[in-house]
Design a protein that fits this description.
Layout (H helix, E strand, L loop, with lengths): L2 H14 L3 E6 L2 E5 L2 H7 L3 H10 L7 E5 L11 E3 L5 H13 L2 E7 L11 E16 L3 E11 L5 E3 L1 H6 L2 E3 L6 E3 L6 H17 L4 H20 L6 H15 L2 E14 L3
Parallel strand pairs: 3-4, 5-11, 6-10
Antiparallel strand pairs: 1-2, 2-3, 5-9, 6-7, 6-11, 7-8
Helix pairs in contact: 7-8
């Protein structure tokens, strides 16, 4: 990840967490963290336990982030952010944890018209799935699926559609939401069935090749461990070989959200 992308992400993260920027430049940021960001990024649970128990005024940390290593010496107590730095990894984990589920309303440029009227929103559930095809090799594929909770329509590449629109975290004036026909759990179930169908349609050549490699490894183990000797070690090696080579599919939900749309 390039330094400019790290800086943009860092600034968006701090802004979303309500942090105050003391100083900014293309190569560094000095910020006073919000309470929420301090708890996420600075590991001092006993301090926050004491503050909350005693009811005293909290003092969130002031941090200096530097994005150009050559400028690190110019900033007192500055820390360089890069893809492998502990603070940046902590920031990514916090973003993943807090951004796992969202609820957003589409902003529309069209006027409502009559101020006494109200225009409906259609509820969509969007889920980003990571499908991992695992054997002694691994391939990850992201499926961005959305389902209309009113009609049951499923859309692939839902994230691309959402990126084209503008969003607000609050329900705008003169708008109302349509009662969904599907509960969230039912919507997730429909998406999982759709995803299973997509997985079953995949080319199984890689899986067959992995099974062939597994059989070769197991045959070599039979020659390496003669019958009746080192049975415990042999069984352990067999289990490890099967786990390493036997093809499997793992599915993980990266994040999800309720999106209220005018229309698609």
């Amino acid at each position: 990840m390039a330094a400019d992308r790290i800086r943009r992400f860092t600034e968006r993260f701090l802004t979303a967490h309500g942090c105050h920027f003391i100083e900014k430049s293309p190569n560094h940021l000095i910020t006073q963290l919000s309470i929420e960001a301090d708890k996420d990024l600075v590991h001092r649970p006993f301090y926050w336990m004491y503050v909350e128990k005693m009811g005293i005024e909290p003092q969130p940390s002031i941090l200096t982030f530097v994005f150009d290593p050559q400028e690190l010496d110019q900033h007192d107590r500055g820390e360089c952010l890069n893809p492998g730095s502990p603070r940046f990894l902590t920031m990514l984990e916090a973003a993943k944890k807090r951004g796992r589920f969202v609820r957003l309303f589409e902003e529309s440029a069209r006027p409502v018209g009559n101020p006494l009227s109200s225009r409906p929103y259609i509820p969509w559930l969007g889920v980003n799935f990571q499908v991992s095809y695992v054997c002694d090799q691994k391939k990850d594929v992201i499926h961005c699926l959305g389902i209309n909770l009113h009609s049951g329509e499923i859309m692939e590449d839902f994230f691309r559609e959402m990126k084209r629109r503008r969003w607000n975290a609050k329900l705008p004036a003169n708008r109302h939401t349509i009662q969904p026909q599907l509960r969230i759990a039912e919507g997730v179930g429909e998406l999982e069935r759709f995803l299973q169908t997509q997985i079953e349609r995949q080319d199984m050549t890689c899986a067959k090749q992995a099974l062939k490699r597994m059989r070769i490894e197991l045959e070599q183990l039979e020659h390496f461990f003669p019958e009746g000797e080192n049975n415990a070690e042999k069984e352990q090696r067999i289990r490890e070989t099967i786990w390493q080579y036997h093809p499997r599919v793992e599915v993980e939900v990266i994040n999800a959200g309720l999106f209220y749309l005018e229309a698609l």
